[in-house]
Amino acid sequence: MIENKCIYFEKCGGCQIQGLTIQNYCTEKQNQLLKILGDLPYDEMAPMQTFPSGIRRKATLKVDYGCNTGFYKFKSNDVVPINKCPLLRDEINALIQPLKKLFKSFVKRSEGGIVITSADNGLCIHFENIALMPTDTPKIRTFAEEHNILHITSGNVEVYKQAEPIIIFNGTKIPYPPKTFLQPTKESEQKIVDAVLDVIRGKHFKTSADIFCGLGLFSFYLRDFSDTVFAYDCDEDAIKHLAKIAHSNHFNIMAKSVDLFKHPLSTEKLNEFDFIVLDPPRDGAKAQCLKLRDATTKTVVYISCNPVAFTTDAKILINGGYRIKKITPIDQFPNTTHLELVAVFERD
What we know:
Mean pLDDT: 93
Radius of gyration: 21 Å
Number of helices: 9
């Protein structure tokens, strides 16, 4: 967290909480969570996991017609120009000023964004809604070479490639598609994984499922505890990469692309799994939880980045006979009102 106020605080809309001691900060965020959960029953609330500033590995900078580069104001589409964000990794901050110079040569054509990701082997960049011309390509390539960028894409087009960006899950290297979900920091990602491992350590399952699996973060850990892991997600690119890595390494992971919002896994299918990890996007997984409510799976671990949506889904599962054994709050969105949590559901 940022204890001292950032110079952009109350201008940039990224942070809503600053200037508190760590104790007051944790109390504030814990109270916010308890207010959202309301009368939701649970057996245990673990202490909130917190992290230092300067470790965020992914950022989306906004660019307007005037070539201002930074983040939006709170509840606005006006860009607040920034030179540095205390939450970001140093290698991402080091790109902001050079990117401003690059933008001035072509961004006046459109408003858009640029996603910078610090992968495990270097930096990659993805342009969002920025109209590039063929004459821009040499400038971008020169920029990439000067700043040792691995990969640059725009929309679905590859503009520059020195090497494939790589993300490592449980020792396995996975190619990282530029638009695929990634936890914001490696440190918070590991805390989430640890919370899942605490539930399954010492156990072994015939089958387990990683639902809303993305690139397979949990799948690569579950494979050590399961005869077979079934992984499902709506992101076809992510599933393609996961399936390819699993096949080439002869891993016990079966990956399938499914629109889990329109076609959630049936209760009958869910009954085949001894253990389930559910990690939906921000809006939650109501359709899937309605199917899961009547399933016989004994243990479900639900990871949520939105306690409001989680509370709605949790009530569905509780009405079906599940109970919440433990909730672990993980502050991977420091200095904001957002909070990640890991909840362990069990049925007798």
